What does this fold into?
Amino acid sequence: MTNTRRNRIGPHLDPLYGYSYALTSNRELSCALVRDCARTALAARNVPRDDRVFKSWLFGILRNDCSDRLGQCDAQPSTLADDLVVEDWGIGRCDDRVINGLTVRLGLTRLSRHSRELIALIDIAGFGYADAAAFLGLPIAVFTTRLSRARRVLMRALVDGNVRALPQAKQSKSK
Amino acid sequence: MSGTWPTWDTLNAYVDGELSTRESAAVARALVSRQDLTEQLAQISRLKMAVQESVPHVEVVLPAERHALPWPTLAVLGGLLLVVLAAAVLWFGG
It folds into this structure.
């Protein structure tokens, strides 16, 4: 039975780590949170049978532990740049030098934990909107709006030039 | 562009595969005549991919399984330990 449970947990380890990293921006803490989450899940007397419920249950364990360790100070949605409009993006500047893994990693740190969580649940953890909204206790319409707003704010942080990866810096030096 | 369909929310849902078949088809039709929408979609897709790439790679493994001994075995081992201790006390103390 334990092996069955281990097999069920295994595929979620990387998404759990990615989600945890998005919340904490700390590799060691993220690994510790995932390990503790797995231990808790392995030791639990009862686990959900349904795979989707099981996944939410796992992420819930990690989320609670993470909140306990980090506190609730940054748990509220950010109002940063809530009034941004799409036309202001500067689309022409938004190429691969601006949007890549490294710049996004830095850019995510500029968002509130709530916004990072919305993005991580969809793009890293692979939740659907309905499951992610239920996970956060939000109506799906509210979740949809907040997710797209969080992406817009992240995009704005990248486009505004406040976040730059090393290759971009090298290019400007060489000019 | 504000106030026109598809909205920014809809475009995000389209990229995330959250629209119904009918809605997706309508967005696809709108894309044909709207270059600005195509660029926005490309950006959302790029951002989505970059978020996935933003997580530093770490090998995450399940914690080793703890093989707890069943209580009857623990009781026997405890009894044996007591016998050994008692024998040691008698041997060295007597």
